[in-house]
Amino acid sequence: QVLTLDYDYMSDRLLSILSSPYNSPIRRLILHVHGIDQTHRGTTEYMWYRFKQQHPQCSLVMNLVHSYDGVEQLGSGLLHPSMPLTHFRAFFCEWINVAALRLMSNWYSETLRHLTLVDSLYHSCWGMLTEGRDEDQESPDPLVMLAWKCKHLEHLTLLGYGYGGSDVVAIARLRGTGLKDLCIPEDCLEADDSHELANEEDVENIAEDVSAGLGRTWRPLALSDLHPCVRTTSSFDTDQYILPIVLADSVIS
Fold it and tell me: What is the dihedral of CA 47, 9, 109, 27, to 10 degrees?
């Protein structure tokens, strides 16, 4: 029922084999993406379409782990519209592909339930989601678009990237009680007018508005709530944080 693969072994040939009518139904396919070899031929939209036809109940979980290559190639061959993507996670990739997030909101509006983007609080791409927003008012925030279009989104974790308080409030209002988990640290919340870290009063106002949107009491994560590999610059083993999350994918409740 559950098949876990490293993306190195994923190919059209394998998808063709998995799409054979003689195979047992797959309920969950888990792909782990690390470095992507230059010779990797990737997969095609047609083969994912065939796979989904054969396994209509299958959900796809994609985990990018320390994968700058994976983030870079999300919109140029790693993702396909017919993928039954329900869970997308990027761990310690030190980059967010904003264009790919916009693709996800269009391609996976009926399937995406879980989005996790995790990096250390101290890395060079901290401002990727907020830089240039003042000059580009025409383009909506990609996470707000996901919250609007992905009608089944129930979990959002954003660690290690600055994010505007008004956008967090917008996500809460768009998803309402359907958003079961909204995990954003207090130390990532930015004041909208200055893009500086939100002060105590700002945080309280954001928490109050988010709570109203979600229909329950909500608080941002405190620094003490975060794993050491997220909250410090020390070289803690990130596997200690990642492994329990990805191993849980193999269990279907």
Answer: 90
Q: What is the pLDDT of residue 66?
A: 93
Average pLDDT by stretches of 10, the chain with 253 residues: 94 94 90 89 95 96 94 91 98 92 97 97 81 63 96 97 95 98 96 83 96 98 93 77 93 79
In the chain, what are the domains?
Answer: 2-248 (3.80.10.10)
User: Cα–Cα distance between 91 and 40 in angstroms, integer?
Assistant: 22
Q: Which residues neighbour 184 within 8 Å (Cβ) at sequence distance 6 or greater?
A: 156, 157, 158, 159, 163, 168, 220, 221
Enter the pTM of the model: 0.94
